[in-house]
Amino acid sequence: MDPHLTLEGNPGRAAQLCVEAQARLVHRVVPLTDDDVRSSSRLPGWTVGHVLTHLARNADAHARRLSGALRGDDVPKYASGQEQRRGEIEEGAGRSAVEIIAGLQSSQSLLEDVFAKCAAAGWPNGEFLGGGDYGVAGCPAHRLREVEMHHVDLGLGYTPLDWPDEYVAWDLPVLLATVSDRLGSAIERRRFMAWVAGREPLDPETTLGPW
């Protein structure tokens, strides 16, 4: 699918959906206690606090790229790469619920301000890659994915059935395009292909590698 015909190519609409998704997320997490943020999430090895801290730092990372594009600078999400990402998450995950949630709200508010500035400027320099694999114009759509996926990962009652139709319409084809490379064997690829073609039921033992 041509990304220019999807949310990745329509940053204005993706930003609107992202703002709505971020509001739903904040509404759900504001009541959390210290015990809640220290409880396990649905992601192995991560607490709810880890997921929320990641979401805050991810908002900062997208704001960093978009702000750079406004200045004409092609900057990465994380200056020190994945090491910086991992360190920031581990450092922030042990804070109190009040601190974690306030940090999330602050980071999301900053990102929404940057969205507004980019929209007013016509989303300039959308082709900048920042050392990644998608242009900066795709940041709102990719942030939307982070919020929707990780809202589910929190394990707090938000499920894939709550995902907005426009998000699913964009991201389902994107994720399906990764399936072939994530199946572990030639036999699994054939069985999955047969299921997609409606030729036989999906093998319950079929597994996908990390995405």
Count of beta strands: 0
Q: Largest beta sheet, briefly?
A: none
Mean pLDDT, as a whole number? 93
Order of helices and strands: HHHHHHHHH
Annotated CATH topology of the largest domain: Four Helix Bundle (Hemerythrin (Met), subunit A)
Instruction: Give me the Rg, rounded.
Output: 18 Å
Spans of at least 5 consecutive residues with low confidence: none
Features:
2 domains; Four Helix Bundle (Hemerythrin (Met), subunit A); mainly alpha; 211 residues; single chain
General description of the model:
There is one protein chain. By secondary structure, the chain is mainly alpha-helical. The protein folds into two domains: 3-164, dinb family like domain (Four Helix Bundle (Hemerythrin (Met), subunit A), Up-down Bundle), CATH 1.20.120; 178-211, no CATH class. Helix content is 61%, strand content 0%. The protein contains nine helices and no strands. The chain has helices spanning 11-29, 34-38, 48-71, 81-93, 97-121, 139-153, 165-176, 179-182, 186-196. α3 (48-71) runs parallel beside α5 and α3 (48-71) runs antiparallel to α6 (139-153). The longest helix is centred in the middle third of the chain and has 25 residues, at 97-121. The model has no long low-confidence stretch (mean pLDDT 93).
Secondary structure topology:
Elements: H1 11-29, H2 34-38, H3 48-71, H4 81-93, H5 97-121, H6 139-153, H7 165-176, H8 179-182, H9 186-196
Helix pairs in contact: 1-5, 1-6, 3-4, 3-5, 3-6
